[in-house]
Request: fold
Amino acid sequence: QVQLVESGGGLVQSGGSLRLSCAASGIVFRDYMMGWYRQGPGKQRELVATITSGGSTNYADFVKGRFTVSRDNAKSTVYVQMNSLKPDDTAVYYCRASRGDGYWGQGTQVTVSS
Reply:
């Protein structure tokens, strides 16, 4: 059974930082591309960042320079370090594992107050 469990969300003031984690089980983690997505209030889910099995990263324009995605294959965990947070970053953040097939976590809430 595949499980992706996000953690690290919470309430932070504008300009603050959070680090989200997503621990995977039930997959060969090192073979999967991992991604972070978010869905804000009344908005569609959107891509935040991805990291391939080889460690190449890709970021949405609205987080470039502020967010950093990384992975630890030994721990089957992907991270996103989020700095200089803005109220517009308020959303539920989801991780996704993909390799043809795809799996989603349950999400973690990030709220940025102004």
Notes: The two ends are 40 Å apart (CA to CA).
